[in-house]
C-alpha cells in the first residue's frame, strides 16, 4: 500500500519518512543558524552605535526604540503566519489604519465605551483578513493580487469614513484611550518605567509563538508552506486553514492599529502605507523564508528589533532619511540571499 507523505515528513499512517526527517533536521538547523546570525547582528549594531554616539545606549533612547518597535513588531508577528504558508499580505499596513479609523468612529462618533471600540477595531482587522483569505483560498486569486487590492480598498475606505480628517481621542469617553499604549508600568525592583505598548508587543509575541509551535494552527501553517498539495492529499482542509491564517494576520493588524492610534492619540487615515514593507522586512531578516515552510516568532522579534535599532542609530548619526532607506533595503536583500543559500544547502 502507498502512503501520501505530508508536509511534516509523515505518511498517512503517521510514521515519519527518513527523507522527511532529514529535511526537517536540515531546515531546523538552518533556521537556528539564521536566528543566531540575526541575534549576533543585533548585538553588533547595538555595540557599534553605542561607541559611535553617547546618546544611543541611554535608557530613554532604548525605551524609544522598543516603543517604535511595538507597532511594526505586532504587524510582523501577524505577517509571519502568512509568510510561513508561502503567501504574502501587502495590506497589513492599511488594514491597521482602517482598524484604527473604525475604532475612532466607534468611540468618538458613536460614543461607545473604549473596550467596545477596541473590540470593533480588532474585529475590523479580522474581517479584512478573512476576506483576503476567502479570495485566496476559494477564488484561487494569487495572494499578491488579493492583498494589493485589499490595501487599496482599506486605504480608500479609511479616507472616506473619516472624511480625510484625523479622528482625535481627546473628548469624553475617549480621554483615556492614549493610556493603552503610553501609560507606563513601573518595575518595583529596578524602578524602570516600561510603556504598555512594549509589554503588549512582547505579550503578543509569546501568544504568537505558542500558537505557531504548540497548536494545530501552527502545524497546518507550516504544512501549507512546506507542501500544500501533499497536505491536501493527507486530508487536511487546506482552504479552511488558509482562511484561518489570513484572519489571524488581520487580528494582529487590528491590534497594531489600536496601538498606533493610542500612541498618537489620533486615528490618522493617511498613515499605514509602507508599514507592510517594514513588517515583511522584519519577518525575513528574522529568518522566515519567503518560500514558506520555515520561520519562528523569536526570529521575527529579533528582525523587528534590528530594523528599529538600525533606523534609530542611523538617525542619531544624522544619516539622511533617503540613505537610511537604502541601507535597510540592502539588509533585506542580504537576508533573502542568506535564505536562498541555506535552502540550497538543505
Blueprint of the fold:
Blueprint: H1 18-52, H2 59-84, H3 92-109, H4 114-137, H5 143-162, E1 167-168, H6 179-182, E2 184-186, E3 193-195, H7 196-214, H8 216-226, H9 228-233, H10 238-264, E4 266-267, H11 275-285, H12 297-316, H13 321-345
Antiparallel strand pairs: 1-4, 2-3
Summarize the structure.
The two termini are 29 Å apart. The longest helix has 35 residues, at 18-52. By secondary structure, the protein is mostly helical.
Q: What does this protein structure show overall?
A:
The protein has 346 residues and is mainly alpha-helical. The chain has helices at 18-52, 59-84, 92-109, 114-137, 143-162, 179-182, 196-214, 216-226, 228-233, 238-264, 275-285, 297-316, 321-345; strands at 167-168, 184-186, 193-195, 266-267. The protein has one domain (56-345): ABC transporter involved in vitamin B12 uptake, BtuC. It is 71% helix and 3% strand. The strands form two sheets. A two-stranded antiparallel ribbon has the order 1-4. Helix 4 packs antiparallel against helix 5 (143-162) and helix 11 packs across helix 13 (321-345). The two termini are 29 Å apart.
Amino acid at each position: 500500500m502507498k502512503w501520501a507523505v505530508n508536509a511534516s515528513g509523515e505518511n498517512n499512517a503517521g510514521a515519519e519518512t527518513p527523507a522527511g526527517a532529514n529535511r526537517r533536521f536540515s531546515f531546523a538547523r538552518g533556521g537556528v543558524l539564521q536566528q543566531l546570525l540575526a541575534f549576533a547582528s543585533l548585538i553588533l549594531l547595538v555595540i557599534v552605535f553605542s561607541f559611535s554616539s553617547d546618546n544611543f545606549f541611554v535608557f530613554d533612547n532604548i525605551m524609544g526604540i522598543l516603543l517604535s518597535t511595538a507597532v511594526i513588531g505586532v504587524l510582523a508577528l501577524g505577517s509571519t503566519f502568512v509568510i510561513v504558508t508561502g503567501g504574502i499580505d501587502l495590506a497589513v499596513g492599511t488594514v491597521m489604519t482602517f482598524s484604527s479609523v473604525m475604532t475612532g468612529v466607534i468611540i468618538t462618533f458613536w460614543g461607545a465605551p473604549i473596550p467596545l471600540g477596541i473590540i470593533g477595531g480588532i474585529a475590523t482587522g479580522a474581517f479584512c483578513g478573512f476576506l483576503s483569505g476567502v479570495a485566496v483560498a476559494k477564488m484561487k486569486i494569487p495572494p499578491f493580487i488579493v492583498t494589493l487590492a485589499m490595501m487599496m480598498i482599506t486605504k480608500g475606505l479609511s479616507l472616506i469614513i473619516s472624511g480625510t480628517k484625523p479622528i482625535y481621542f481627546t473628548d469624553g469617553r475617549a480621554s483615556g484611550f492614549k493610556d493603552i499604549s503610553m501609560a507606563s508600568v513601573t518595575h518595583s525592583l529596578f524602578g524602570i518605567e516600561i510603556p504598555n505598548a512594549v509589554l503588549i508587543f512582547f505579550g503578543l509575541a509569546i501568544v504568537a509563538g505558542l500558537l505557531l509551535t504548540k497548536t494545530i494552527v501552527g502545524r497546518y501553517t507550516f504544512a501549507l508552506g512546506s507542501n500544500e498539495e501533499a497536505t491536501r492529499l493527507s486530508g487536511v482542509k487546506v482552504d479552511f486553514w488558509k482562511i484561518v491564517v489570513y484572519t489571524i494576520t488581520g487580528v494582529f493588524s487590528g491590534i497594531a492599529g489600536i496601538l498606533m492610534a493610542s500612541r498618537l492619540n489620533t486615528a490618522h487615515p493617511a498613515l499605514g502605507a509602507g508599514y507592510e514593507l517594514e513588517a515583511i522586512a522584519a519577518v525575513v531578516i528574522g529568518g522566515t523564508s519567503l518560500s514558506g515552510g520555515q520561520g519562528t516568532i523569536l526570529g521575527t522579534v529579533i528582525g523587528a528589533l534590528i530594523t528599529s535599532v538600525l533606523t534609530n542609530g542611523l538617525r542619531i548619526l544624522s544619516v539622511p532619511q533617503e540613505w537610511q532607506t537604502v541601507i535597510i533595503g540592502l539588509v533585506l536583500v542580504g537576508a533573502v540571499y542568506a535564505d536562498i543559500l541555506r535552502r540550497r544547502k538543505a
